[in-house]
């Protein structure tokens, strides 16, 4: 008989989420191998304006960003948290290499599949680049990275990954990163800006069905890894955008009263008719919100840079030394 190793953390988090009222699941679990593949499809669809917007910044302003990172031509280690396929980052790295910047690149991702793809693409497109990927939760990997040496580190958190935290968790996250930063280190984060709701919503509820498949894939993952019996066809994906708070939220909604058993335990989860599972928030920002987030997290905002349409902003911060 095949003996399966159970991912205990996944089990604990899934049970916590599905026994909570309202039910929720943690979005970091979206990214198993299949989830990472579906996310690639999301990033390539025209409705997902975020990728092109941040790409536009890196494509138009790489020299400005290099100067901010290296203060001229000082050595720098680029630590990218949640790097995904690293597609946009390679635009910057290519420019930095052309300028012979003394730079090393350390992408960190929880998905092994994402790191495999990133490494293959970087080795092909940027031969000679110093690259050392880390696979794991960024919270676990940060202490290892801090130990490397004393070169200046730029921690990058790109895309709209920070948008997946609510405001309090975003402050907690940045304060946590701050503990692993020296006074010369920098933090470079992507922020999706508030904009026409008719542009925001289709990025999370597209006509091709990729965002629905991405959310439903987490139920399939739970079936596979925790021996659960979710009937995926009995749930529907639903997305909302609140232009006041700037929150885009995704849910999976049970289309009927049903029970789901989690096979690796004796737990059964009851769903009412039309009961939602909250899946993910994607927070949209304005400049005041970014500045407040930096202040609340004990950082100083050094520079902001936006794409031509002002859909997206990258913000460079330095930790306040108290
Ligand atoms: C929304 S994607 C963004 C990818 C990339 N930064 C971009 O802008 O295209 C989020 C990435 O973060 C990774 N991720 C999510 N939670 C993580 C965690 N707790 N630790 C490390 N990586 C994580 C996922 O595997 C995924 O590749």
Salient structural properties:
single chain; 322 residues; alpha/beta; Rossmann fold; 2 domains; seven-stranded mixed beta sheet; four-stranded mixed beta sheet; 11 helices; 38% helix; globular; binds S-adenosylmethionine
- Per the principal axes of the C-alpha atoms, what is the gross shape? globular
What is the CA–CA distance across the termini?
58 Å
> How much beta, percentage-wise?
15-25%
Number of strands: 13
CATH domain class of the largest domain: Alpha Beta
Helix content: 25-40%
Q: Estimate the mean pLDDT confidence.
A: 95
**Secondary-structure content class:** alpha/beta
Strand order of the largest sheet: 4-3-2-5-6-13-12
CATH architecture of the largest domain: 3-Layer(aba) Sandwich
The major beta sheet can be summarized as: 7 strands, mixed
Structural domains: how many: 2
CATH homology superfamily name of the largest domain: Vaccinia Virus protein VP39
Number of helices in the DSSP assignment: 11
Poorly predicted parts: none
């Amino acid at each position: 008989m095949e003996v399966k190793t159970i991912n205990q953390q996944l089990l604990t988090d899934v049970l916590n989420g599905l026994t909570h009222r309202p039910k929720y699941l943690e979005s970091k679990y979206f990214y198993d191998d299949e989830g990472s593949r579906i996310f690639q499809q999301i990033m390539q669809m025209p409705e997902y304006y975020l990728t092109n917007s941040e790409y536009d910044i890196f494509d138009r302003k790489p020299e400005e960003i290099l100067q901010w990172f290296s203060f001229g031509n000082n050595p720098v280690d680029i630590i990218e948290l949640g790097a995904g396929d690293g597609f946009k980052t390679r635009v910057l790295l290519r420019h930095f290499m052309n300028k012979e910047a003394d730079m090393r690149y350390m992408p960190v991702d929880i998905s092994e599949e994402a790191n495999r793809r990133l490494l293959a693409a970087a080795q092909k497109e940027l031969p000679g680049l110093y690259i050392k990927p880390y696979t794991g939760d960024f919270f676990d990997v940060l202490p290892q990275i801090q130990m490397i040496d004393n070169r200046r580190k730029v921690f990058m958190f790109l895309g709209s990954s920070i948008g997946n935290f609510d405001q309090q968790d975003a402050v907690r996250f940045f304060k946590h990163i701050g503990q692993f930063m020296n006074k010369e280190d920098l933090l470079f984060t992507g922020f999706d800006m508030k904009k026409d709701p008719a542009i925001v919503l289709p990025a999370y509820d597209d006509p091709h069905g990729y965002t629905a498949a991405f959310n439903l894939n987490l139920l399939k993952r739970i079936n596979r890894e925790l021996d659960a019996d979710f009937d995926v066809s009995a749930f529907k994906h639903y997305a909302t955008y609140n232009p006041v708070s700037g929150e885009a939220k995704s849910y999976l909604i049970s289309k009927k009263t049903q029970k789901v058993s989690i096979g690796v335990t004796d737990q059964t989860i009851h769903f009412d008719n039309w009961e939602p599972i909250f899946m993910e928030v994607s927070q949209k920002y304005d400049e005041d919100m970014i500045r407040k987030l930096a202040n609340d997290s004990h950082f100083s905002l050094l520079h902001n840079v936006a794409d031509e349409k002002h859909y997206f902003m990258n913000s460079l911060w330095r930790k306040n030394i108290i």
